[in-house]
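hi! just following up on the protien thing from before. the input was this:
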Amino acid sequence: MSDIIQLLPDSVANQIAAGEVVQRPASAVKELMENALDAGSTNIKLIVKDAGKTLIQVIDNGCGMSETDARMSFERHATSKIRKADDLFAIRTMGFRGEALASIAAIAQVELKTKRTGDEIGVKIDIEGSEVKSQEACNCPQGTSISIKNLFYNVPARRNFLKNDTVELRHIIEEFQRVAIPNPEIAFSLHHNTTEIFHLEGGQLKQRLMAIFGSSYNTRLIPVEENTGIVKIKGFVIKPEFAKKTRGEQFFFLNKRFIKSPYLHHAVQSAFEEVLPKDSFASYFLMLDVDPKTIDINIHPTKTEVKFEDEKAIYAYLRSAIKKSLGQFNIAPSLDFDQEAYLYNMPLKPIDGVFKQPTITVDPNFNPFTSEGATRNKPSERELSNRNNWEKMYSRNTDIQPELEIKQEEDTQHTIDTDWDNELHESNKKATYQLHNKYILSHIKTGFMIIDQQGAHERVLYERVLDTFEKHKSATQQELFPKTMELNATDFSLIQELLPELKAIGFDISEFGKQTFIVNGVPADTANFDSVKLLEGLIENYKLNFQELRSNKRENLARSMARNMAIKSGKLLTQEEMNNLIDELFACKMPYSTPNGKPTISTISTDELDKRFKK
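and the predicted 3d structure came back as:
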């Protein structure tokens, strides 16, 4: 039998490596921008066409490469960062494995132009599918320009798995932000087709965050800074009142490299635990600087996961630094130990400069048992009213109980059967009660049922929106004064992606300048809502549902609309509103659960009640 094990050709090996390094256009963007940073660039320009499927070009003014280095950069595991194994634990650069360009060149058509400082001419190299097509001298500015054309042109299966342009562009924007945020001193720009999405000048971190996420962040950011022997922490957290329902704006940078760390994220959430609204996530932009010898960044192909030598200490320092910042900026309660105690207790000096002892005037002849004293002690009208109200509250159960029992006996003949699909009923004969402005109680023949008013309304609205999609019938209420809505680049691209579906359910919105939409109309049944807040809430819920459920766009939008528009716990409902909600709920296809799968109805039988009152 002949031997069956053989070495893979370089082209095949590079394509396999590309599967780990380059998953989508955004992956190539990340690799090229990190190479530009390592070259010492002060200005980096990113140009993409058709969300990177047609063209990805990165132009920098870095150190450039010689003719030999330019050719060697496309070889597998060719790198200028590592000479020996120990160098892996002293890495401060972004890239170091030497796989990126070789992997990209295996699945795309690549053109490289580069020139070093002091060289008269540069070099141009064309590579297609790992094969060098040409290499020649060229005239180009100092630095490097690399163009990736027709990504995955020779791997059609991988290309077919790419999402639409809006989704892929959103991923590119995310990678762009992850490189631009930790390097605020470097100028960046991003162009998509004919539109400039970002133009970021070099400056401070706060200026960079405002340029990316909007000028409103000027008043939302709380600085965090701590310098210890193990880790240096610097950055910003967002004020708790601006916390979001999604994990979108959460950035950890370790030695200027974006990382994901659930353990450190827990430290941030723990620091916010006393001031953060329920079911919300803190937003943060935190830079961690540690000795490279104490971390291992070579455990993940994209280098977004790392191992720390002493992660417990970093956890403690991070949590402490954030709590300190929240306290200093009066977000969380704190004690100011630097303030002298006498400053709190020193009274203001009177105008004449003389402090006078307070005096008390007492009538020695006052007798509370005389008619005059009795008159003085006579309770006021307000005191009498309050006393009567308290007495009524405590006597309410005994006074009302007989009437309530009689009414319950009468209503039992008209109760609602547990099988609502088969029983006919009249709304004016249903006995419904609201408990704590949160639950609706109603009789059924075997006991009573409890309905979660918010969950029930979400189910009704969810099926109503889906029905609108199916029937293509939506009514739009035009705004008397159209409103503008400014978004960050990620949310702007998300609205662009959802524009056809939003119009299908009644929204009339259109692009209005850079990263801005104008809202001309909203669905007719949302006319009482603030249109901008409605859309902002819709975006947040959409992103949250996408992270948790991965549902399709229409179902996700329906869930988001239902969640945003549903009546909330704490709202007082009239008898008619409760009856209408119950009728609409049991007209749904799936009345017994919310769109997210939580129950809307719970029943308690009279048998269960009887057992509770037996001795």
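Residues 220-328 form a domain with the Ribosomal Protein S5; domain 2 fold (CATH 3.30.230.10).
The radius of gyration is 34 Å.
cheers
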